[in-house]
Amino acid sequence: MLSLVSTATALAVASASATAGHAPIRWEDLGVGPIALDLGFFALKWYSLAYLAGIVLGYWHLLKMLRQPGAPMAQRHADDLFFYATLGIILGGRLGYAIFYAPELLTHPENLIKLWEGGMSFHGGLIGTVLAIAWVSWRGKLNFVRVCDYISVCVPFGLLFGRLANFANGELWGREAGPGVPWAMVFPGGGPVARHPSQLYEAILEGLVLAIVLLVLFWKTRARWRPGLLVGTFTLGYALSRFTVEFFREPDAQLLDLAMQSGLSMGQWLTVPMMAVGLFFLLRGLMRQPVATGGALPA
Fold first, then answer.
1. Binding site membership: which residues?
2. Residue-range domain boundaries for the chain
3. pLDDT digits (tens, 9 = 90+) for 66-87
4. Cα gap 231→214, rounded to integer Å
C-alpha cells in the first residue's frame, strides 16, 4: 500500500493548491491506477491485493484474539473460518452485486464469473460470511453470536483496504461537489465536474474509525464478555457510516431512478435492516449479564 500512502501526500498538496484557488484536483495527476504490480506476464491489481491483505490481516488478528482468556473457539475453527469465509466473501459479494445492482448478470452466467471485470457487493459478501460462520459454528458446536463478535472486530481491515482500492481504481466516485470542497476531484468517466472522493470517506468511516472503535472495545474493555456487543457495534456502526457517505456518493447509473424516486440509494436501503439488527444486538449485549470468564477453549 506504499503507493496509496504517497497518494495521500499528493492529495494533501493538491488540496492545498485547490484551496488557494487553483484548478480542481485531477485523479490522474495523483499517480494512482488499478495495477499495483506489473511484471509484463502478470499484473497484480490493487483490488485483488486489498482482498488478500484484508483476509490475511483479519486472520492474523483473529489468532491473536483467540490467545486471550475465554475465546469462543480454537485455532482449528479459525482455520475453517478462514477458508469458508473467503468463499462467502467472494461468492456472496459477486451474487449480491448481481442481485442488488446488476440483475442482468443473472441472465448471463458467463459474465457472472468474470470477477476481474469488477462488481462486488459488501452486503452480499456479508451474507456469505454470516452463512460461513453459521456453518462452522453449527459443525463445531460453537456459540454463533460470540464467534460473530470476534469476526466483526477483524472486518474493518478489509473495508479499509477495499475502499482504498476503489479509489486507486478511480471507481465509485462521489456526487458533484461545490466550490467549498477543496479536495474535490475530477475522475475519469465522471465528466468534467469535480466530485467528492467518497471512496476515501468510506475508507475513513467504515474502515479506520470503525476499526479503532472495535479494537479499543476488545482490547481495552470487557466488551468481548458480553455476547452481541461487538457484532452489534460493528453492524450499527457500518450501517450509519454507509448511510451517511451515500449522500456524497454517486448512485449507480442503473439505479439512478430508484435514488431519485425514493430519495435514498440502494446502498442506503440495504443499510436500514442492518441498523435494526445492529441496534438489537448492541442493546442485547448491554442488557444481558456477561458470560463467565476463564472458560476453556471448546474441545
1. 163
2. 2-15+22-44+164-287
3. 999 989 999 999 999 999 999 9
4. 9
